[in-house]
Write a structure and sequence with these properties.
With 183 residues, this protein is mainly beta. The protein has a single domain, classed as Beta Barrel (Lipocalin), CATH 2.40.128. Helix content is 15%, strand content 55%. The protein has a ten-stranded antiparallel β-barrel. A hairpin with a 5-residue loop joins β6 and β7. The longest helix has 19 residues. The radius of gyration is 19 Å and the shape is globular. The mean pLDDT is 91.
């Protein structure tokens, strides 16, 4: 009897894992973001100073059978060559978008988590981080998918006990002549 109950429990558990492990509607948004992109970036090192402006490029591709979107970015940040890699996914169990980010100007792996608006085209995420220059802080990102060819990204920093500061804004434009695969 105990062996039969264990087998049934295992079957039920595997059904749950299969359900939460199957890409859904949110993963279709990730598929729309796949492709080759150019970027225009404005970044602020001091809140009231004019922003530094730069350009870059990234390649985004679905990985692990459409479960995640991987981005490889290259450009410069405040005049310094800069590369970064992110993985964005939607966790069907927690109902949240999750992102990891690492880059050539840090040894940290940033972990963001958040939700989308009702229409599903604006994703807001947060990351708690002990910034080496400013101490404990919260990073907040807002990603707006404007259409199949334009994505806007903003990043804000709130050091502990201080007000939020806009750190960066980036516009992604799909490279011309690059056809997006159908989702």
């Amino acid at each position: 009897m105990a062996a039969q109950k264990t087998k049934m429990d295992m079957q039920k558990m595997m059904e749950i894992y299969k359900k939460v492990g199957t890409p859904g509607e949110q993963h279709k948004l990730l598929a729309k973001l796949e492709g080759s992109w150019t970027t225009r970036t404005k970044s602020w090192s001091v809140p009231d100073a004019p922003p530094a402006e730069s350009t870059g490029a990234c390649e985004r591709k679905l990985i692990l059978n459409g479960h995640y979107l991987q981005e490889e970015y290259s450009g410069d940040m405040m005049g310094i060559p800069f590369t970064g890699i992110s993985i964005l996914g939607y966790n069907n169990h927690t109902k949240k978008y999750e992102t990891t980010w690492c880059d050539s100007l840090s040894t940290a792996i940033f972990k963001f988590e958040g939700t989308a608006n009702r229409a599903g085209n604006i994703i807001t995420q947060e990351c708690r981080y002990d910034d080496p220059a400013r101490g404990p802080a919260v990073w907040r990102t807002v990603t707006r998918v404007r259409d199949d060819n334009t994505v806007e990204f903003e990043m804000f920093l709130t050091p502990r006990g201080k007000k939020e500061e806009k750190m960066m804004e980036m516009t992604y434009s799909r490279k011309e002549g690059v056809v997006r695969k159908a989702a």
